[in-house]
Specification:
Synthesizes selenophosphate from selenide and ATP. It is a single chain. This protein is α+β, with helices and mostly antiparallel strands. The protein has 2 domains: 1-165, 60s Ribosomal Protein L30, Chain: A, CATH 3.30.1330.10; 176-351, Phosphoribosyl-aminoimidazole Synthetase, Chain A, domain 2 (Alpha-Beta Complex). It is built from 11 helices and 13 strands. Helix 3 (121-138) links the parallel strand 4 and strand 5 (141-149). Helix 2 runs parallel beside helix 3 (121-138), helix 4 crosses helix 5 and helix 7 runs parallel beside helix 9 (278-287). The termini are far apart.
C-alpha cells in the first residue's frame, strides 16, 4: 500500500514510474498468454461487424448503415514518465492512435483511471489535464469516464469515431508489391527501461517523450490523397509483432530492411548495457517461428524490432509511388517517414528481417 505521506507531496515532486513494475505498453499481458486466453472465447459472427477479433486489428468496426461505420477502441497503461501532465498526454496520444491507424478521426473519448486515494489528488488533476489537452488537439470531445482505486496508477481512453466503410484502413489488406512506411522512431521501450533504471541522457529522453506525445493524426493526414492499402500502429507487440499481424492477415510476407529502420540515437548503448524490457523477450518468444532474422542483422537491431513501443508510429502499406510521396510530405512537415520494407508473396516466414 502507498504511504499516506504521498497525499502531502506536490505533483512535481512525485516520480510516477516508481509506483510501477512495468511502464507504458510494456505493461501489456504477453502476446502468448493473451492468445491463449482469447482462444477460449466464442467467435463473434455478425454481418455488420466489419472488423472484429480475427485479424488483431486496432479497432472494432461496426456498420451502422451502408454509408456509416462506428469505430471503437480503448487503451490504458502505467506511467512511462514521471511528470503527471506529460503522462496524461502520452497515454491519450497512444489511445487516440488506434483510430488514426484505421484511417479515421476520433470523435468522443472517455477517461479510464486507476489511482490511489493515498496520493495527492493534484497529481490526478495534472494527468487528466494532459489527456484533455491532447484530446482537444485531436478535435475529440472528452466527455467523462470511470475511476477505480488502485495503488499502481494507470490512465488511458476509450475512443469512438465514425467513417464511411470504404474509407476504413485495415491491417489485413496489404498487396504484393507494396512498400512499408514507418512514421516514428523505434527503441521507446528500451529508452523507458533506461529512464526507470535511472540512466542519464536527458536529450534522448526529451526526444522520446516528444515522440510518444505526438499524435498520429499528422501522419494520417499526410496520407490524404494517397491510396493506403493497409495500416496499423506499432505499440506493445513491437515492430515485428504488429508487422506480423499485417502479414498474417494479408497472407503475405513482409521483408524489413534493418538498414532503413529509424532508431533513436543512444538505444544501442542501452541495449549493450542490458536495458531491454521483459516485453521484448515475450514478443520474440511468441512469434519466433514466424520471423526470420538474417545473420548479418546487428544484435542490437535484433532486440529493437521486438521492443514494445509506447505511442509508436503508423505502419503503412501502399504502392512505391505513393510511399515516396508520403515520405516527402512527412519530411516536409518535420515528421519521421522511412520506407522500411516491402510486401512479397508468402514465403516460409511471414516476417523476414534482412
Amino acid at each position: 500500500m502507498l504511504d499516506k505521506k504521498y497525499k502531502t507531496i506536490k505533483p512535481e515532486d512525485v516520480k510516477l514510474t516508481e509506483f510501477t513494475q512495468t511502464a507504458g505498453c510494456a505493461a501489456k499481458i504477453g502476446p502468448g498468454k493473451l492468445a491463449e486466453v482469447l482462444s477460449h472465447l466464442e467467435k463473434i459472427n455478425d454481418e455488420n461487424l466489419v472488423v472484429g477479433l480475427d485479424t488483431s486489428d486496432d479497432c472494432a468496426v461496426y456498420k451502422v448503415r451502408d454509408d456509416l461505420c462506428l469505430i471503437q477502441s480503448l487503451d490504458f497503461f502505467t506511467p512511462v514518465v514521471n511528470d503527471p501532465y506529460t503522462f496524461g498526454q502520452v497515454a491519450a496520444a497512444n489511445s487516440l492512435s488506434d483510430l488514426y491507424a484505421m484511417g479515421s478521426d476520433p470523435l468522443l473519448a472517455l477517461n479510464i483511471v486507476c489511482f490511489s486515494d493515498c496520493m495527492n489528488q493534484d497529481i490526478l488533476v495534472e494527468i487528466l489535464k494532459g489527456g484533455a489537452d491532447k484530446a482537444k488537439e485531436a478535435g475529440c470531445l472528452l466527455v467523462g469516464g470511470h475511476t477505480i482505486q488502485d495503488d499502481e496508477p494507470k490512465y488511458g481512453l476509450s475512443v469512438t469515431g465514425i467513417n464511411h466503410p470504404d474509407k476504413i484502413w485495415a491491417n489485413s489488406t496489404a498487396k504484393v508489391g507494396d512498400v512499408i512506411v514507418l512514421t516514428k522512431k523505434l527503441g521507446v521501450g528500451i529508452v523507458n527501461t533506461a529512464i526507470k533504471g535511472g540512466m542519464d541522457n536527458q536529450k534522448l529522453f526529451d526526444e522520446v517523450i516528444k515522440s510518444m506525445s505526438t499524435l498520429n493524426k499528422y501522419a494520417k493526414e499526410a496520407c490524404d490523397g494517397l491510396d493506403v492499402h493497409a495500416a496499423t500502429d506499432v505499440t506493445g507487440f513491437g515492430l515485428c509483432g504488429h508487422a506480423l499481424e499485417m502479414a498474417k492477415g494479408s497472407d503475405l510476407t513482409i521483408e524489413i530492411d534493418s538498414k532503413n529502420l529509424p532508431i533513436f540515437e543512444g538505444v544501442e548503448e542501452f541495449v549493450n548495457l542490458g536495458l531491454v524490457p521483459k516485453g521484448a523477450y515475450d514478443n520474440r518468444n511468441f512469434i519466433r517461428n514466424d520471423v526470420k532474422i538474417s545473420k548479418n542483422v546487428s544484435s542490437f537491431v535484433d532486440d529493437v524490432v521486438f521492443d514494445p513501443q509506447t505511442s509508436g508510429g503508423l505502419l503503412i502499406a501502399l504502392s512505391e509511388d505513393d510511399a515516396n510521396k508520403l515520405v516527402k510530405k512527412l519530411h516536409e512537415s518535420g515528421q519521421v517517414g522511412n520506407i522500411i520494407g516491402k510486401v512479397k508473396e508468402k514465403a516460409d516466414h511471414f516476417i523476414e528481417v534482412i
